[in-house]
UniProtKB/TrEMBL annotation:
The lineage of its organism: Bacteria, Bacillati, Actinomycetota, Actinomycetes, Propionibacteriales. Pfam families: LppX_LprAFG (PF07161). Gene3D superfamilies: 2.50.20.20. It comes from the Bacteria. This is LppX_LprAFG lipoprotein.
Length: 243
């Protein structure tokens, strides 16, 4: 076998193994056949995001972080929340930071279960009423009102260049840029007054959403902010109980 044929065969085997289709230059876009909802053998960016939402709807729980490096001029805002969200029953256990009623708070332990939120303040957990602009984190996996709805409500979706990433640089990650209507973002932060937001969703080669970066006006008079959701793990099982 000639050197040229050997090299061509190696390329064919590699691309078949990784499930890629080649594009111009060095760009590649992963092809996830499971996301082909209409069976036309073509996977559109919209189908990729719909598939990613389905995976979030199906999971037992996720470990994630919601954060922003921006600081709006607002009496109540969430700067960071990280922890575990379970789907059935809806619950959250983790930590949150931000400004509530004008007072800053960092790494406050939060438990949300059975429709009630508890915060560890002054050394002990107590009932906590969330500010109106801060969502109950236990509900963020709800298929109808959770944050994944931004994936299927997204418009003008375009696929970017796939690149390697992840903790060990062993994942193939593809960014998808989109415009998200304000009504969908309000499932994430209820007070968001913006009419539309610019988003970048990063999806791995298994069709799982890994990050969502959303930019727009989340708070009245606060200017544009960028919130990032990073999902570290799927199918998390954790018994979260009242503290």
């Amino acid at each position: 076998m000639s050197l040229r044929r050997t090299a061509a065969l190696a390329v064919l085997v590699l691309t078949s193994t990784l499930g890629f289709t080649g594009c111009s230059g060095d760009e590649t876009t992963p092809t996830n056949s499971a996301a082909d909802a209409d069976g036309d053998d073509k996977v559109t960016p919209e189908e990729v995001l719909a598939f990613a939402k389905g995976k979030l709807d199906e999971t037992s729980g996720v470990e994630l972080t919601l954060s922003t490096d921006d600081a709006p001029d607002s009496e109540a805002y969430l700067s960071k929340a990280s922890g575990v969200i379970t789907a059935d029953p809806p619950a959250f256990q983790g930590k949150a930071s931000g400004t509530f009623e004008g007072l800053p708070a960092s790494d406050v332990e939060i438990v949300s279960v059975d429709g009630k939120v508890y915060a560890k303040l002054f050394g002990a957990f107590q009932d906590f009423k969330l500010p109106k602009c801060v969502p109950d984190p236990a509900g963020l996996l709800d298929p109808d009102t959770g944050f994944a709805t931004v994936l299927t409500d997204a418009e003008e979706v375009q696929a970017g260049k796939a690149e390697r990433g992840g903790a060990d640089n062993d994942e193939i990650l593809t960014p998808y840029t989109a415009v998200v209507p304000g009504a969908a973002v309000q499932n994430l932060l209820p007070c968001a007054p913006g009419d539309e937001f610019v988003a970048t969703f990063t999806v791995d080669d298994e069709g799982l959403l890994r990050t969502a970066e959303i930019k727009g006006q989340f708070f009245e008079g606060g200017g544009d902010l960028t919130y990032t959701i990073a999902i570290a793990d799927y199918d998390v099982d954790k018994a979260i109980t009242k503290p």
